[in-house]
Amino acid sequence: MAPTRIPALGYALLGMLQKPSSGYDLRKVFSSTSMKSYSDSPGAIYPALHRLERDGLIRGRVEQRSGMRRRQIFRPTPKGVAELKQWIALPITREDVGSGLKTIMLRFAFSETVMGADASVALLKSLDSALTPYLQHLREQLQAMMSPAVSTSARLALECGIRSFESLSEWTRYALATYEKQGRKTSGSK
Amino acid sequence: MAPTRIPALGYALLGMLQKPSSGYDLRKVFSSTSMKSYSDSPGAIYPALHRLERDGLIRGRVEQRSGMRRRQIFRPTPKGVAELKQWIALPITREDVGSGLKTIMLRFAFSETVMGADASVALLKSLDSALTPYLQHLREQLQAMMSPAVSTSARLALECGIRSFESLSEWTRYALATYEKQGRKTSGSK
DNA sequence: CGCCCCATGTAAGACGTTACATGATTGA
DNA sequence: TCAATCATGTAACGTCTTACATGGGGCG
């Protein structure tokens, strides 16, 4: 109910609950897949789930089958789904790109199941437009670092960042092409 | 003096203080360069500096030139330099790679000025060895995601990660080649 | 019976975010 | 003189980390 701002972990949980799960299930996903960047510790997960429930974004139901330990299965409420959609569809800014791709990729990963392929395509385009000026900014910085006063390793580190964003830019084109191919085969919805 | 664990921001500050600066200087660097991922807010920087000073890793001197506002210039103590070196030289593990390149690249960026080119090369090799098994792990996950039950966007998101690490792997080779070229021209120290 | 995995929780402490506060100096 | 920038700080708040705690159930 409270309009508290939701941290990244909250959205990650909300998104994963598209498939109803217990806190323990979610922890396992975080610790076993490439989502290790999110905490799999109970001290983070369980309070986060309770906050989401308090805010009316998810609801938990205790499951008590015989021969089964007590577990609480959470699933998103309509309000939770709406919040998730709104978060996914946010336009991507230069700042988002600078302060970590993790969140952006999480939004993209969820986009298709939550909102459909059109939203995924829109996100890709939004990302691509944010990427171009950011890359230019990085290249300008590199120019400024070409002085011999700057160590080779510092310059190389920046070059690493540039390459990584160039690779990301290529990926967006690849991803868009993938959707285009798919769109021709299935319905070109809307 | 206290053996408190130092957060990433602390090391970032410690490293930048290779060039003695005030808190305000550091804030400007964080807000104007590609290090925006670190907080440029006074509520983060100043307490962090005071913690480092309390632990004896840096020392501040108040500068009071006429026609100048009062500013406090910090510089690392020998103990601070030792701590920084130790942090930079830590071997890179699979876990480090999984939980964000940011820290690793920061260590690399500092490595040359703090410890010399040999340390930079060692870091690159360490990174490369950690990268190979991690990439394999990601590729295995991709195989598992090839089922049609998984959305295209989720799969593409993982592919993005894989590509980014492949690009990183290429960069390590490029960086090593750069140092090799440099080594032939200058002293091949050690 | 003892041990390990399932499953959930809590408490203490550290850190970052946001917002506010203070003063001195430069420039219009 | 008024505004903007320089430069430092502090207080409240929320969240994450680390560590500990609890209990049921399967298994040897």
| Oligomer type | homodimer
- Which percent bin holds the helix content of chain A? 55-70%
Distance between the termini of chain A: 34 Å
Radius of gyration of chain A: 20 Å
Q: What fraction of residues of chain A sit in β-strands?
A: 5-15%
Inertia-based shape of chain A: globular
Q: How many strands appear in the DSSP assignment of chain A?
A: 3
Biggest interface in this structure? A-B, 44 and 44 residues
Helix and strand pattern of chain A: HEHHEEHHHHH
Helical run tally of chain A: 8
The overall pLDDT average of chain A reads: 92
The secondary-structure class of chain A comes to mainly alpha
Low-confidence stretches of chain A: none
- Widest beta sheet: strand line-up of chain A: 1-3-2
| Largest β-sheet summary of chain A | 3 strands, antiparallel
What would the keywords be for this entry?
homodimer, 7% strand, 66% helix, globular, three-stranded antiparallel sheet, mainly alpha
Concise synopsis of the structure shown:
Chain A has helices at residues 8-16, 23-32, 42-54, 78-89, 94-98, 101-115, 117-144, 152-185, and strands at residues 21-22, 58-63, 71-76.
Describe the structure.
The structure is a homodimer of 190-residue chains. Chain A is mainly alpha-helical and 190 residues long. In chain A, strands 1-3-2 form a three-stranded antiparallel β-sheet. In chain A, helix 1 runs parallel beside helix 6 and helix 6 packs antiparallel against helix 7. The radius of gyration of chain A is 20 Å and the shape is globular. The model of chain A has no long low-confidence stretch (mean pLDDT 92). The first copy, chain A, binds a DNA duplex (28 and 28 nucleotides) through helix 2 and helix 3.
